[in-house]
Amino acid sequence: MKRRVLGGQPVAEKKKKQQQEEKKEEEKMLLKTPQKLLKTGHYIELGSYQHWPVLIPQRIRLYTYEQIPLFLKENPFITGGYRAHLPSKLCLRSIFMLTNETVNIWSHLLGFLLFFSLGVNDVSSVLPASGANREDYVIYVIGLFCFQVCMLCSVGYHLFSCHRSETTCRRWLSLDYAGISVGILGCYVPGIFYAFYCNAFWRQVYLLTVLSLILAVFCTQVHPHYLSNEWRGIRTTIFCCVAGISVIPACHWVWLNGGLATDVVQLFLPRVLVMYLIAGAAFLFYVTKVPERYFPGQLNYLGASHQVWHILVVVMFYWWHQTAVHIMHFRHSRSCPSSSS
Ligand SMILES: [Zn+2]
């Protein structure tokens, strides 16, 4: 009996010691692990007290529409695939992941590469081959530079819209809007320059008007309410006005050239109309949120209206650039009439 009691005490003590050591180790692990993870960015703060394990670079957590912060809620028909609460580094890394922004990012990143290579091609071969002068070079460089800026601003917004700071997201959003204005300017500059190639007065009037309009839009964007949801309608109206006002120089160009029956109008009016058609279609997709409106949750990753809008914007810019090449060849092939053209 004595032996058992004496022999049993050390065993019990050993067990207690082991349990205490295990507890201590567990506590140490609990204390160390979150800090380590916090440092490596595997945990983030949501609100004032919660820590969510979301930021494993290769497997960034995706959220549903209900889970994302209010300022990211724009399209309820896209029900999932959202990135959110990310620091800049992981926003950048998410470029190689499949999320509901992947097509938006890559469509304009490839668009940027397209317009960059078009610029290189124009300056190195197209313009020298067509006997371009200094003005042609300036106009082409401005046009393509504007398209590239528009593409990059859009890429930046869609890449960093998941940033954990609302202020950063808002800044990128205003940059995206500024990019659209620059893109519109890139359409106007070559359009007006070649349409009024032989009429320096109207060319200057329209170029100055467009520049003032774009400047006015930039000034409006500084307004604190500009990015608010209440101003969404006003934002759309401003862009519609800036783009739609192009009807005035277009009609004026037809009238100055002697009406619809003349050669130059017959040659280029269909191209202008196709441009309006693409722009109109792009705008309709953008505003109506079709087709995801009819298939909520099914087009989260592919086929959503914003993706169609992005692709149509690239098509529209490319179409306008090719039109500028055609009209430049036309202008160089014949001299201006003595009065006007
Ligand atoms: Zn976009």
Automatic annotation (TrEMBL):
Transmembrane segments: 95-117, 137-160, 172-197, 203-222, 234-256, 268-287, 299-320
GO CC, alphabetical: membrane
InterPro entries, sorted: AdipoR/HlyIII-related
Bilayer topology term: Multi-pass membrane protein
Record's compositionally biased regions (Basic and acidic residues): 18-28
UniProt keyword terms in alphabetical order: Membrane, Metal-binding, Transmembrane, Transmembrane helix, Zinc
Annotated binding of Zn(2+), by residue: H158, H306, H310
GO molecular function, one term: signaling receptor activity
Start and end residues of each stretch annotated as Disordered: 1-28
Record's subcellular location: Membrane
Family in the record: Belongs to the ADIPOR family.
Protein name: Progestin and adipoQ receptor family member IIIb
Protein source organism: Gasterosteus aculeatus aculeatus (three-spined stickleback)
